[in-house]
Amino acid sequence: MKSSNRWIPALIVSMAALVVAVRAGARPAPTGMNEGANAPERHFLSADVRRVAVELREKAFAGTRAADWVRGLSDEVGSRLSGSPGDTASIAWALATLKAQGFTNVRAEKVMVPAWYRGVETGEVTAPYKQRLILAALGSSPPTPEGGLEAEVVEADSIEAMEAKGADAVKGKIVFFNKRMERASETRGYGYAVDVRTRGPVRAAQLGAAGVLIRSIGTDHNRLPHTGNVDYVADVPKIPAAALAIPDAETLERLLRQGKPVRVRFTLTCGQRPDAESANVIGEIRGSGKPEEIVLLGAHRDSWDLGTGAIDDGAGCGIVIEAARLIGQLPKHPPRTIRVCLYANEENGIAGGKAYFKAHEAELSKHAAALESDSGTDYPTAFGWTAGPSAEPFAKEVSAILQPLGAGTLIPGGGGADVGTIKIAGVPMFGLRQDSSRYFDYHHTANDTFDKIDPEGLDRNVAAVAVFAYCAASSPEMLERIPPDKREEPRRRPGTPAPSAR
Amino acid sequence: MKSSNRWIPALIVSMAALVVAVRAGARPAPTGMNEGANAPERHFLSADVRRVAVELREKAFAGTRAADWVRGLSDEVGSRLSGSPGDTASIAWALATLKAQGFTNVRAEKVMVPAWYRGVETGEVTAPYKQRLILAALGSSPPTPEGGLEAEVVEADSIEAMEAKGADAVKGKIVFFNKRMERASETRGYGYAVDVRTRGPVRAAQLGAAGVLIRSIGTDHNRLPHTGNVDYVADVPKIPAAALAIPDAETLERLLRQGKPVRVRFTLTCGQRPDAESANVIGEIRGSGKPEEIVLLGAHRDSWDLGTGAIDDGAGCGIVIEAARLIGQLPKHPPRTIRVCLYANEENGIAGGKAYFKAHEAELSKHAAALESDSGTDYPTAFGWTAGPSAEPFAKEVSAILQPLGAGTLIPGGGGADVGTIKIAGVPMFGLRQDSSRYFDYHHTANDTFDKIDPEGLDRNVAAVAVFAYCAASSPEMLERIPPDKREEPRRRPGTPAPSAR
After folding, report:
1. Low-confidence ranges of chain B (pLDDT < 70)
2. Could you report the predicted ipTM of this complex, rounded to two decimals?
3. How far apart are CA B170 and CA B152, in angstroms?
4. How far is CA A139 from CA A149, A271, A306, A488, A495, in A?
5. Is the CB of B247 less than 8 angstroms away from the CB of A451?
6. B120 → chain A, closest CA residue
């Protein structure tokens, strides 16, 4: 940006802030120190609140203990697939950690979750050459017949391309969705490609396919497949579905380019046990003025089973725990309560998010704001918000304080798969966009382990979340709710990022 | 190098070349075109030979078919562990490919090879926390007892550190060799670290250890372990040995740092079948003048079983096949025969190299020179030679022609694990040093697949090998043999690079 133009957005912010400040009865306060270059000249938040927010930012930016919490969850518990022993163990870990770190009202709120399990998974090209294929069952997939499923492969680079081939070409075959995900600093590459995983198996089954293989939705070239959930539907046959590691998908592609029929056999012994008991684990930093009003910070405690869930979503758990803990250590807590919720079952069901809605429906009107952290440790690059229009000065003021973290750009968005379940009640949603250039190298693979955690990125996210949470817990009034016509989430898949982050 | 000094090495080269040229009865020839900045002014090779060598270089540098041969071996055969079905299939592939590409005297020379197989392999931390460990049996390892081997872990960052702990600390334990390999453009990081794999299990067994786990000898952070061979010895108990993926080794390291005893269980069902029949596959570009004199180009046809052996050593096979094929397409073949040998069993035995020595002992005095390609597709950075002193002008002249490829630096070295078996007969050894900064991210892992092949690097290596082979097949006289006191290879492990490349 040219320096001669820098006053324009600042002026717009100032004017908007003035309108709101007058409406809220607040007096304009002097400009806070260190709030970043685009700080407004009139303020929605008090100088004291802004000063403390800046101090929180500086403290967290200089180094936090968030990596300790991620390491605990990753090393001492490990993978946490819903309904697995790791899921159960992580409930105890989360309760103990929140209690030890001074949270109050720490409890596990029961959630019944699906209990899908993986089992054995093998694959091979059987013709025209023998070649081992490394693959992973997609979440919720049924098993193959015993001895495996063998059929000729039909390749399509999208659902639409498969449907254009028609049922005659697909019936009895293994559909190979070979859709490439683009590497990008935002998650749009994922959003573009992931439909072959979430919806592909159902659409292929509708054309009579026997099974589905997809090119993993990821950006790496490791022989580590990316799992993720399939949205099977009740009235369409569930066919076995697996993700090929990207090098294996490319081998299959090269063999298909030779023009001879290619046959593949794959064997999955995955399946579904009866729903199991899990929990949303909650802890609070009690508000000093209006403790019944809540700022909700969410992350998900469950993970896929292949890795140890360090980036997805151990990182988010570490970020929200640490952000709240730092606020809890302040000499005076902010007026509202900061509630951390470590959700059950984000990856294959959102049962935790749905259970939270049910259990807390009566107090949703007291939820002042919500944010979810679920994008690993990559640097925050923007601050997203969705609320009533009069909340804009608040969002701008927070984004100004986030500027030195690199997250000062204000964008529409916020929320997430878990906290998004209370959007219907109008709760204002916030969030950080993170640079996801490398996130999808590891996402949903065995490579999601603690060595992938970037401590500096983790600290930047802690700083940003702490600033947001402290400001939201300190704003003079409740922020204006999301207008009723904007409370519906667009159709979104479990395990995919919020549309705002696409 | 400053330009004002550039004449000094050229002068030295010129003087040395003059001495040799006079001795060899050759007349000084005019400077060849395009031979690179450090071309000598007096020449050992004729202007015609140098011109053709430069043309070969230019042609290959602009693009070759080497990737086709690598793709064939990788996609249509796949992994080729000695004695496995892939090993057998690759013999037929190699014979057919060499015949189809116009080689003469194509044949498979029988070699009996060890037939080690992998089986199932699992690992887990059992205390103080449960944690899955991804590991791979090391080549030649015996199986664990049924149900696995469980014991407390003793960590050591070197063989010497383990020995300093003494037998009391090691007896009955699982020794965890946690020795880090440094990323480097040369292979010295590998040479430094690999002793814990090749010799560690024997030394640990001598102290009474029950088993060995090593941090994979590699430079990546993927959950894909690096296998490789163990040199078990006859009079020491063979104990089970496996490599942990690097993230898993780091998890184990972090758990050990907590100070509590750490127990691990691992299960291997690997084993050894009776020796199996394999083959060195040979094809020739027959010499036009002295066809009984041979320039030997070697690579190994076998691979480890985890990947498809694209970089190790499909790349080398592709490079030597293509270099010889390009020479075969010349209007006139060089005087000597260029023999390509795709060796059996480099990785776990060198049975192919030993069999070549036995089968060809009578004609080793007619072997003019040998080169092996076994470092993937990374760019060549130097040209190595080991021969009698009077061969130096030849080496310098070749290196001058390699200058535009980035491989103009002349270094001591050459040879390789397979062709090195005939060094004892004094056969001059040559080789390319390649930049191996990324090679050990993939080496001996499931990630060694065709997508890791860099076509431009492949072509640069083809160009360099073709130049060398053509010049060696065209030099006026046989090059001076390696002096008898320099023919012994230093003790070297199967599957490790030649000492020259360390």
Report:
1. 1-41, 489-502
2. 0.89
3. 10
4. 18, 9, 11, 26, 10
5. yes
6. A120
